[in-house]
């Protein structure tokens, strides 16, 4: 190290100009300057390698100009070293900060690894089933849960094509028996006027679907290696996703769009509680109550899985034996995309949580193409969509819809139909539309819908009245609620006329009764302290931490003959039979005794 002592400013400046150094303002430099009795120090490096030093002291002063900067400096004494600082200088200065940050990060990573819950999601490969669960898993991230979806190849591509971020495992086995294809066939049959329902075909395809993925050893190898903590599985007619959770030794949570009293073993009164898929309201006629009772009885005796045989024993022989119904009843929690605002008040089990409107949310800005079309509307915007599965309506229905829309020039119609974008006057046809964002647009006045669960909740969220065109499955039940609660008008997709549709559009838009009903329901929906996703995420986090014993009804663990009190009724029946038989013997004895006394008396006479 070479050290120099400077007693004049010129001497110091000349030495600095010959020195190649850098400084970051904290004295971590290629030089060390010691100032005696200095109150302020500032160093800057200029482009021409000249430097300015300011020493404010009490002795010698000199005014200098370097690169246009005028500085007055007073120098007492300076010592200059041309050596580079030791590597320990940075550590000595910042070491405690780096250590603190490193320890904090290490602690947080440790907490993450300890408390993070890993979830596997297995739901039917349909957008209407996946979107609500995606909303839940996004909220679960706030609770340090991470989710991985098991998807078919086509569904994984579709989701990613929409720009959605999702962690997934692609299972080729799900492509072999497509549930989406079965649902599409049912909807197309109904739109073409068919009155039959391919029950046996649906039952058989559901079994093939289960067999396909339950025998996929590659899939299970991937899932077992991932070491998940719990599963969210679909609860729907004739699916068997809970077997996947059992095979992986995971506790599971059900997710579905409706509440099933048979699953939860809660009281069901067919006098005012509509059976699933009945299409009735809570105010039924005598005939409807008779039909409702039959439908409930059929649902009571239907198989819990797509087989009357035991699928657990077939596909999970290495695990302890369980019946299909016992496995189904072993769920931790049931998240239901339902709400009394779109249904009716009924007795609900404590481990069933109503979270209707999971896929609904605040509207985002529209792309300029759609926004400009919406702004051109004179009296408002009408959104038309029949779901994600039906890409286009049959020609007869399509012609009637277009004819009705063309008669109403004061409205602009955005219609999801076909594979290409097309604008025809006041009608914009799109292969896909941002439905939730459009329903939240300030100019939207009406929603013409097939009444899918997510669609009606998006309309409820944004307070948009509806014209209901139910096609099949649960859509008729949703449409019945829309009509009964005054949220809109119910129409027949096969029998409507052009003039009828025009009249009903004007009626719903201009009659304040419909707007008031849906707006009032929307205000109730938004007045709650938690959003549907927050409510679902809270309860899922709770049961994964503490289990579900504290709110699990004992009825779920009872044998069926105990729950239905078959043993009690049998005892009563046996007792009644014995009582009747004893009474019969008693009467017989009394009669015989009376006859005997009468014969004795006759002989005595």
From TrEMBL:
Keyword annotations from UniProtKB, A to Z: Glycosyltransferase, Membrane, Transferase, Transmembrane, Transmembrane helix
Residues passing through the membrane, by range: 89-112, 558-583
GO molecular function: glucuronosyltransferase activity
This protein's record includes keyword Transmembrane helix: yes
EC numbers, comma separated: 2.4.1.17
SUPFAM superfamilies: UDP-Glycosyltransferase/glycogen phosphorylase
Catalytic class of the enzyme: transferase
InterPro entries: UDP-glycosyltransferase, UDP_glucos_trans, UDP_glycos_trans_CS
Similarity section: Belongs to the UDP-glycosyltransferase family.
Protein name: UGT
Native source species: Mytilus coruscus
């Amino acid at each position: 190290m070479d050290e120099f002592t400077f007693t004049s400013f010129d001497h110091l400046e000349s030495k600095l100009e010959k020195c190649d150094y850098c400084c970051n303002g904290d004295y971590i430099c290629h030089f060390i300057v010691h100032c005696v009795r200095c109150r302020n120090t500032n160093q800057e490096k200029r482009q021409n390698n000249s430097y300015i030093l300011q020493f404010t002291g009490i002795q010698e002063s000199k005014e200098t100009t370097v690169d246009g900067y005028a500085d007055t400096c007073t120098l007492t004494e300076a010592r200059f070293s041309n050596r580079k600082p030791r590597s320990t200088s940075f550590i000595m200065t910042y070491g405690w900060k780096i250590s603190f940050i490193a320890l904090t990060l290490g602690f947080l990573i440790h907490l993450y690894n300890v408390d993070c819950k890993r979830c596997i999601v297995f739901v039917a490969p349909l957008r209407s089933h996946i979107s609500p669960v995606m909303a839940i898993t996004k909220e679960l991230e706030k609770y340090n849960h991470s989710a991985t979806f098991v998807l078919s190849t086509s569904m994984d591509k579709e989701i990613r094509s929409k720009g959605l971020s999702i962690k997934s495992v692609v299972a080729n086995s799900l492509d072999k028996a497509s549930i989406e294809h079965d649902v599409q066939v049912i909807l197309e049959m109904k739109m073409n006027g068919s009155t039959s329902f391919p029950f046996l075909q649906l039952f058989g395809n559901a079994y093939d679907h289960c067999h396909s993925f339950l025998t996929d050893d590659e899939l299970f190898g991937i899932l077992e290696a991932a070491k998940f903590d719990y599963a969210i599985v679909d609860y729907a007619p004739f699916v068997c996703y809970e077997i996947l959770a059992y095979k992986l030794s995971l506790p599971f949570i059900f997710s579905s769009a409706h509440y099933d009293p048979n699953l939860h073993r809660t009281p069901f009164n067919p006098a005012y509680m509509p059976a699933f898929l009945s299409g009735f309201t809570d105010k039924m006629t005598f005939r409807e109550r008779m039909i409702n009772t039959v439908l409930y009885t059929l649902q009571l005796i239907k198989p819990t899985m797509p087989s009357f045989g035991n699928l657990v024993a077939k596909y999970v022989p290495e695990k302890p034996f369980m019946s299909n119904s016992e496995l189904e009843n072993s769920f931790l929690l049931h998240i239901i995309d339902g709400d009394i605002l779109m249904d009716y008040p009924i007795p609900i089990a404590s481990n069933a949580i109503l979270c209707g409107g999971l896929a609904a949310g605040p509207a985002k800005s529209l792309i300029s193409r759609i926004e400009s079309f919406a702004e051109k509307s004179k009296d408002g915007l009408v959104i038309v969509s029949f779901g994600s599965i039906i890409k286009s309506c049959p020609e007869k229905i399509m012609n009637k819809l277009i004819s009705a829309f063309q008669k109403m020039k004061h409205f602009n119609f955005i219609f999801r139909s076909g594979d290409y974008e097309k604008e025809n006057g006041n009608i914009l046809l799109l292969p896909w539309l941002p439905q939730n964002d459009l329903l939240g647009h300030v100019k939207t006045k009406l929603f013409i819908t097939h009444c899918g669960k997510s669609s009606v909740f998006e309309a409820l969220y944004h307070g948009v009245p509806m014209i209901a065109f139910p096609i099949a499955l649960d859509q008729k039940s949703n449409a019945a609620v829309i009509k009964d609660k005054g949220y809109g008008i119910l129409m027949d997709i096969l029998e409507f006329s052009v003039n009828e549709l025009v009249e009903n559009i004007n009626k719903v838009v201009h009659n304040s009764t419909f707007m008031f009903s849906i707006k009032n329901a929307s205000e109730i929906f938004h007045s709650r302290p938690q959003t549907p996703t927050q409510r679902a995420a809270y309860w899922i986090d709770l049961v994964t931490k503490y289990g579900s014993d504290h709110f699990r009804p004992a009825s779920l663990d009872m044998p069926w003959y105990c729950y239905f009190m078959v043993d009690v009724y049998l005892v009563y029946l046996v007792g009644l039979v014995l009582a009747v038989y004893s009474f019969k013997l008693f009467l017989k004895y009394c009669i015989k005794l009376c006859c005997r006394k009468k014969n004795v008396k006759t002989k005595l006479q």
